[in-house]
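The instructor's notes for this session suggest beginning with a concrete chain rather than abstract definitions. Hand out the sequence below and ask the class to guess, before any prediction is shown, which regions might be ordered.
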Amino acid sequence: MWADPVVTRHFGRPFAEEESWTRLLRYVGHWALLGFGYWVVEEKATGSFAGEVGFANYKRDLESPLRDAPEIGWVFAARHHGRGYATEAARAAIAWGDAHFGRSQTTCIIHPENLPSIRVAEKCGYRELQLTAYKGQPTLVFVR
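After discussion, reveal the predicted structure:
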């Protein structure tokens, strides 16, 4: 999934195998060290891999008043785009987050051209907080 240019068009470029492996290790590390992280999303009907959703604290070099808030993210394989899976999965993750983080704010960052993800964020109760830059790219910061 991370090597697919359709999936990664708003991330800058497709990821090499090494970068995908490092991402997986970060996911495991989040659970081990912070007690939260990402889940694999499976399509119910087939059991096939659909994508990933979860929370992280990447300590991003990002100007934001919410730099240390849990950051939700979602990404789905191209064949699963447009099916509502991201909204369903994000809502499930948010419910988990509400139970585990309490009333703490959570955040997400989205490239301004990624309109499908912006719609998912808004459906899940996130509102735009600021436009900033991350790794030289315009980035919207959302808060819930």
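Then share the key points. The chain has four helices and six strands. The domain at 5-103 is CATH 3.40.630.30 (Aminopeptidase).
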